[in-house]
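Recap quiz, item 2
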Amino acid sequence: MKLVGRAWVFEDDINTDLLYPAACFRVPPSERPRLTMSANRPGWSAEVRPGDLVIAGTNFGTGSSRPAADNLKGLGVAGVLADSINGLFFRNAINTGLPVLEAPGVRAFVREGATVEVDLDTGSIRSEGRELQGRPLPPFLSRILADGGLLPRLRKEGYID
Amino acid sequence: MSRPQTQIERILSRHSTESPGAPVEPEDFVQVEVDRLVLLDMAATHPEFLAHLPHRVHRPERVAWVFDHLVPPPTVELASGLVKLRELATQWGITNVVDIGRGGISHPVMAERGWVRPGEILANTDSHTCAAGALGCAGRGVGMLEVMSILCTGRTWYRVGETVRCSLTGRLPAGVAGKDVFLSLAGAHGAIPSRNIEFAGDGVAALPIPTRQAIATMCAEISAEFALFPPDDRALDYVRARIPAGEPLEPARADPEAQYAEEWTVDLNRVEPLVALPNRVARNVRPVSEMTSVPITRAVVGSCANGTIEDLEAVAEVLNGRHVHREVVFTVTPNTSEVMAEAARRGLVDRLLTAGALVTNPTCGACFGGHMGVLGDGEVCVTSTTRNFQGRMGSPHAKIYLASSATVAASAVTGHLTDPRALLRGEDPP
């Protein structure tokens, strides 16, 4: 799977309470994505466009099991590339069909606003004529992403409608 | 000779569906059978779950449904959601429903009920499921979609991460808690995403189970995949007292020659009361004694990590007849009904109420900013709950300091961040 998009660059330790504030539990699902990172980057959820990529430092998505990846997906974010990613966020992202890639050094490698190309299967990241190697996804996780996440997978296998 | 296994590698290897018992190593992805699954009341807030209900449930006797976050339900909508969940439990044959007033926060309550067993794999939709590691159980928080998949298939996958071995030596001094041990690690080493942590060393044996639970639970805050204590006699005794006699346990231990990515050591004798400053836990920790100029308006004791009987004892000991500062609201939330009942029997509830603290029912409420005491604009809170992220406990314009229950109690008395050791020595608060 390949992605090309405009980069938004965030710092280390972006946590799930920033991605999916507790206020999300009190509003209908359709209103939740606009609350994404309203505390640390007010206004961003209105600026981000479908197909954009989120680039971040270390420990992205640290925190709770809340469906933080769904908020990014709801804003149309095409993928997350970070120096390192919390394991629970990583699972939640794959399972909801949001591409994620760990690539040590990616935050310093990408300039905000630049165009970034990613090949999830090889881990290759290109931007402004340079290349960085990330940790490619194993084939069985790529297949979950290709299916669009776990829900389509479970439906295909007859477990749910 | 096969590759020596760490404790977590051994558990994952035993549970592999493809080659059970074959050694695993970092970077492997392992498909596993999950031994036990815990659903939470938060399922009621997940439209993707309610709109795509599994046709049937794999081994419903190995599934529990614990109501802990929305307890008691703060809105009509959430209360109605719980009605729906009870109907689903009945429909799916899930009899192990831990309803309001009969349990508490999922991690401690499932440990109390013998559902957290060494050598097993436990999945739960809460990120602090690594709490199970206190008893040598491989617990991991997973998302709602993954829980749906495990409900249907009984299986999931884990990436085998590198493991850090953390050796504990010596004994904790008076006034210093498991929370301080965790904060010392988070301050010195920062986060370890995709790595595991295994505790070892001669300092483990003397640590009570609630202390181990506090440490293991908090390892979610350094993004550990799994956080495991060895299944020693104290852990096995705790579990055996809570399961039917004769039920076999299969604890997993690390091979002596197992390879670790890093070795950390903590001399427990030298740990002091610590505090994580607002907004992040990793590499954001200071001694409480250096932060005493910070005034507070709120003090909170509770959560899966620190609402244990050990915490309530520590609070009562620090208070020792003193009163909560007139400009501070102090909330204490025992983490299970069993803890609350025991606290009442020991007279702790009476001592807390007399001091001017509010004692609430067991709930995740304030810790996740849901209800039961959220923070307002401009408030400054010191808490022994789990997270200090911006907006975590309510307003994004509040500040959250994370510390031990003893430090929280001492600060509640003085009105500013306070090292509890002076109060414990009987000295007047500064």
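Chain B touches chain A through 47 residues (CB under 8 Å).
The two ends of chain B are 62 Å apart (CA to CA).
End of item.
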